[in-house]
Amino acid sequence: MKKTYLGEFEEVVLTMVGVIGEGAYGNRIVEEVEKQLNRSVNLSAVHITLYRLEDKGLVSSDMGGVTSSRGGRRKRFFKITNPGLAMLKDLQEQRTKLWKLIPGMNSSAL
Amino acid sequence: MKKTYLGEFEEVVLTMVGVIGEGAYGNRIVEEVEKQLNRSVNLSAVHITLYRLEDKGLVSSDMGGVTSSRGGRRKRFFKITNPGLAMLKDLQEQRTKLWKLIPGMNSSAL
DNA sequence: TCTCATTTCTCTACAGTGTAAAGAATCTCT
DNA sequence: AGAGATTCTTTACACTGTAGAGAAATGAGA
């Protein structure tokens, strides 16, 4: 649990963990980012970012069971914490407020 | 004009330039950030960020006239460009879409 | 006009974040 | 037990966040 500041990609990953809900882990998050944002990302970029989020207390993790149908290392599952959700809400509130003050921004898009 | 990626503080500054509209310059932006986000920022942090935004073509700048009532160096005024506004719109659209997918997020806050 | 105080911009520096690549660990199947 | 598959972990470096020092330009007063 370090600073409370959140970088751009950290916010993306945190958001995806929230969107996925149960069963969020490395490759699943990569797929979700590519599907939702149409943006290619690296698996280890996601992992290192998840660790940083965990250091900040915004996500928590535990190792999954040995239920894999196919071979491979055990998955580490992540889920968003209450502070993590609160941070997303703060960002949401902050931005919606500001967007309404910018001429040329379409408020009805909200 | 370099990459198109936008960091967290870069987005804040870009947004403020959009909010202020006419007459956005260093100290004015500092004040606006502290007022809107209740967050203390350094003047040179704002400046270096403005230059990076200008490199990316998201804001443009020109020097102000000699109309200062009190002494001091001339101001450099910044304004948001069309690509800059388009980027904010993209971010807005992207996030509102994702927020609606997260259980526990209040969509009515939008 | 010269110096001073004021205001703002510019440069330098370093920690934090974004991203990729290489490698280690652990599982299933034969 | 060995081979292949899948995922996690470590290492590394460019980009972004932030602060501090200092240079430049303007108005006021001696």
Describe the oligomeric state of these chains in a short phrase.
homodimer
User: Which CATH architecture of chain A would you pick?
Assistant: Orthogonal Bundle
Overall structural domain count of chain A: 1
Helix count, DSSP H or I runs of 4 or more residues of chain A: 4
Radius of gyration of chain A: 16 Å
Name some characteristics of this structure:
homodimer; DNA-binding; elongated; 110 residues; mainly alpha; Arc Repressor Mutant, subunit A
SSE order and pairing:
2 copies of one chain form a homodimer.
Chain A: H1 8-20, H2 26-37, H3 43-55, E1 59-63, E2 76-80, H4 82-99
Antiparallel strand pairs in A: 1-2
Helix pairs in contact in A: 1-2, 1-3, 2-3
The structure holds a DNA duplex (30 and 30 nucleotides).
Can you describe this structure in just a few lines?
Two copies of one chain form a homodimer. The mean pLDDT of chain A is 90. The first copy, chain A, has one domain: Winged helix-like DNA-binding domain superfamily/Winged helix DNA-binding domain (Arc Repressor Mutant, subunit A), CATH 1.10.10.10.
Q: How does this structure look, described?
A:
2 copies of one chain form a homodimer. Chain A is mainly alpha-helical. Chain A has a single domain (8-105), classed as Winged helix-like DNA-binding domain superfamily/Winged helix DNA-binding domain (Arc Repressor Mutant, subunit A, Orthogonal Bundle). The first copy, chain A, is built from 4 helices and 2 strands. In chain A, α1 crosses α2, α1 (8-20) crosses α3 and α2 crosses α3. The longest helix of chain A is centred in the last third of the chain and has 18 residues, at 82-99. Chain A is elongated. The N and C termini of chain A lie far apart (33 Å). The mean pLDDT of chain A is 90. The interface between A and B is medium-sized, with 30 and 30 residues. Chain A binds a DNA duplex (30 and 30 nucleotides) through α1 and α3.
